[in-house]
Input
Amino acid sequence: MDTIANPPRSTALITGASSGVGYELTVRLLREGWDVVAWMRSEVPDHDPVVAAARASGRLRSDRVDLADPVGLAAALDRVRSRERSIDLVVNNAALSLAQAQPGPSGRDVHFDVNVLSPYAITTALLPCVAASEHKTILNVASNALLSVKQFSLAELVHPTRFKKLFGPYAASKLALALWTHELARALPPDVELRSVCPGPSDTPMTRGPGMPRWLGMLVPLPLLFPHPRRGADRLHAAGLGAHRGERGVFIHRDRVTPLPWLAQAPAVLAAVRDIHARSFPVRPGQDVRPRDSDPG
Output
């Protein structure tokens, strides 16, 4: 009986892979024999010998990408599409939580462009690569902060007129991400799985950064409340490759499917994100993905 001498390895693309949960997930997948395409603004540290060995062998392929810049992101997507035949798992993990609103290169607030728009651009551009793979899974990393949103307006998120650390544009951006994930999942091929997941609180550069409310930042050094980001990486791994296989469009929080607030706005959020994306990125064939029961007009 013939055997394949070198069976193809599974490949993951992870954004925000240089630190925190993204780094820990990168290390875990490399240990499990995966190839990883790592996107980040700074280089993936190789103090772990697994990372150093994977980089030397070509199993870790990194690219510096600014997700706030649509032009740079479009170029990065072109590069990965030309280099990767298939991508089994896409993890849109990178996010911003700043101390104040900040316009990006597009003129929109960077919380929207990085946390909402860039995952949509990545998802739609890489859909053919995912569909050609074995695992066919896309994870959008959300946050339990979205459960705290009491007022929600996408227009306010795109151009904020008021700001609150963590529970303002950041929480609203994670809600918008989970809402369009829920809606878009209905439009994808039935064997492609798209869902959002909260990895839980972790002690990371972001949670120790200026975007955290002072009272909450004081709790970050407490490991019972903000454990090592390895736990968050384990939750992402389980959400993508474990018990939640087959579930599409759901939001997973504390390892359980959790109802989303403001779910009635999901179609409008997807339509708005699709429109902004179309005006911000070059049009590519096959990327106008609509829910099957939506009005094409």
Observations:
- The two ends are 55 Å apart (CA to CA).
